[in-house]
Amino acid sequence: MKTLLIAIVSIALSVAAQFSLKAGMSGDGVRAALALPYTFRTLFDVLTDKYVFGGFLIYGLGAVVWLGVLSKWDVSKAYPLVGLGFVFTVAIGFLVGEQVTIPRVIGVVLICAGVFLVGKS
Questions:
Q1: From residue 62, how far is each of 14, 21, 27, 57, 79 by CA, in Å?
Q2: What is the C-alpha to C-alpha distance for residues 95 and 97, in angstroms, rounded to an integer?
Q3: Alpha-carbon gap, residue 62 to 85, rounded angstroms
Q4: Distance (Å, rounded) from C-alpha 21 to C-alpha 19?
């Protein structure tokens, strides 16, 4: 049970990283930088945006946490749990006003069914 909790924390960190990266890439500073010809300065401006930088930090932390899962479980058991990230992402996306369509929800349900089957094996 402890390993499952560690896996969920890692997945939640990955989802948080996605939303942080999205916030950064949608921000005025990054959009302005991307509107100019691409140079090293463009890359610097994007990577130093607080949300982009924070997103990468959160991803890194999630990867370190994931190492705890891999130390206890087979990859074939652990990795399908990453599919739960789709559930978290769609739920949070809905809460923040993203368009969540019926086909998208059905796809997430199918992913959950697959994760359940793998978990039972």
A1: 6, 14, 24, 9, 14
A2: 6
A3: 12
A4: 5
Amino acid at 114: G
Helix (H) or strand (E) run with residue 1 in it: none
In this prediction the pTM is 0.85
> DSSP label at 49?
S
Q: Tell me the DSSP string of 50-112.
A: HHHHHHHHHHHHHHHHHHHHHTTS-HHHHGGGGGHHHHHHHHHHHHTT----HHHHHHHHHHH
Task: Locate 101 and state its tokens.
Answer: 């369509």
pLDDT in tens, 29-44: 999 999 989 999 999 9
Number of other residues whose CB lies within 10 A of the CB of residue 11:
23
